[in-house]
Amino acid sequence: MTAATQHLLKRKQSASECEHQPAIDALRRALNASLLGKEAVIELVLACLLARGHLLFDDLPGLGKTTLAKALAHAVGGRFSRVQCTPDLLPTDITGFNVFNQQSREFEFLEGPVFADVLLADEINRATPRTQSALFEAMAERQVTIDSKSRKLPDSFFVIATQNPVESHGAYALPEAQLDRFAMKLRIGYPDRASELQMLAANVGPAMRAPSSESVVTPQQLRRLQEHVASVAVSPIVAEYLLDLAQATRNHREIALGLSPRGLLTWQRVAQARAHLAGRDFVIPDDVQDVALAVLSVRLNGDHSQVSAIVKQVIASVSVPVKANFVGAR
């Protein structure tokens, strides 16, 4: 690469940072204010959002999953919907349904909660497989089809689903087809001592501290951010590295189903988002590795420690390109 080309790339990167960095910083501040002491989790949530993925929280109750989902919906100025998943929940309770209007003598469509910018599917594994499948099309294609008519969802449609890893009574395991539609699976975990003390202090008074409902970016700004992330450069050498890692999951003796092509595309897009959050317009192997556990854990069976060990084995089994041109075009 010539010196002139390097200079041009640096100028483009600086201009991009100037344009998008204020929105990124505003989102960071809003989410970190809602969930104290979880900066690393927030970075992964932002990467998932910017990659236009969907997020599965596999964690205990009371750790801030709902609070984070609401804060995210408010931050992007979008509509927030929550579905409390139970065994008696019907698919139409999520997607909506047609009703006959006696006055107009025509059918009218009543939108379900899926028509939102951010949808929280709380305890998703307590819904029956039939109801879980109502989200398949919505998550993959951002549309729903009711009575042979397809209706588009917002461009910023983002699903945050939760499940409790401890309780299994009355729960239905998510099918592989649905898990593959999530970009990540995350655990929030308990906050550190200082953060919990800060939380206690903030909630002393006549009323509990209400979370901010102020939007920091518009859905249109978010869409532009997502479009920019999609254009972050992935050099051929990094693409080869990603493919080698995917192949390693398919050949691993402890992995029943290796990474699918859709999962590989998701991994690349999340790595692009991670690079953007780090202030770069190109992906490096560190970006791929930083999001590996979050991306692969939703596609691998086993508890967190087992999956973490397998992901480390997969990464260790593939040589990392160290003297390569990572800035090249895809």
From TrEMBL:
Domain of life: Bacteria
Domain AAA+ ATPase: 51-192
Gene Ontology MF terms: ATP binding; ATP hydrolysis activity; helicase activity
Keywords, comma-separated and alphabetical: ATP-binding, Helicase, Hydrolase, Nucleotide-binding
SMART domains membership: AAA (SM00382)
InterPro entries assigned: AAA+_ATPase, ATPase_AAA-3, CbbQ/NirQ/NorQ/GpvN, ChlI/MoxR_AAA_lid, P-loop_NTPase
Record keyword Nucleotide-binding present: yes
UniProt record similarity statement: Belongs to the MoxR family.
Protein name (record): Holliday junction DNA helicase RuvB
UniProt organism field: Anatilimnocola aggregata
